[in-house]
Amino acid sequence: MMNEHYELAKEELAFYGAENASLQNILAVLIGPKANPSITGQLSALGIDRLADLSIEELRNIQGLGETAAKRINSAFGLAFKLRKFGKKESYKIRSPQDVANYFSNLEHEQQECFDAIYLTTKNAVISRKNIFKGTLNSSIVHPREVFKEAVRLSAAAVVVAHNHPSGDPTPSREDIDVTRRLVSTGKMLGIDLLDHIVIGDESNYVSLKEKGYV
Fold first, then answer.
1. What topology does CATH give the domain 97-208?
2. What is the DSSP string of 23-72?
3. What's residue 90's pLDDT?
């Protein structure tokens, strides 16, 4: 006989993804075909913090929850804990224009202009980096959609962009300024801040358009 609660929970995870699914339905999928609303409701009522602290034995003592399900739930929180520790260890935080310049220092050696973006958490930790394009920077080529599409996908709180000047002179051009203004405007509409636009020159020289007043 089909378990409707379990099947609906699986459908929600498949459609919305685990990050957008309810805690009760995530628990239903972890428990498996024997999940029922009474058990998952009781567990979700405890809240994530309390659930994360429960041992396998403590989970087994919850009426209706078997050993296998208890191990699955405990393992899920154990994996989440390890991922969180890994993320804290590996993430690079942006605190200043110098941090941005350091992060994008490899662009100094590119022979053509490279326009890259990094996507940040609410605490300015780097989530991801993406090359937007290579070529001559032009406001008609750098469309804000290409920058912010990835920000929306990653649920990023902020964006920082950077590009290099192969000439070695990081002085912003009129095109650099126009691109920056368009990105700032789009970010405001989406609620995603453009924190800075850095132009990378040679010998570790750079210019922050935020410091120049364009962000």
1. Cytidine Deaminase; domain 2 (3.40.140)
2. HHHHHHHHH-TT--HHHHHHHHHH-HHHHHH--HHHHHTSTT--HHHHHH
3. 52
- Whether the model pTM is above 0.70: no
- Residue written as tokens 């154990």? 78
Q: Where in the chain are all domains bearing CATH 3.40.140.10?
A: 97-208
pLDDT in tens, 120-139: 999 999 999 999 988 776 65
Q: For the chain, give the percent of residues with pLDDT over 70.
A: 94
Q: Both tokens of residue 140?
A: 């008609």
Whole-number Å distance between alpha carbons of 74 and 51: 8
pLDDT at site 63? 82
Using DSSP, state whether 162 is helix, strand or coil. strand
Specify the CATH number for 4-89; select among 1.10.150, 1.10.12, 1.10.3470, 1.10.10.
Answer: 1.10.150
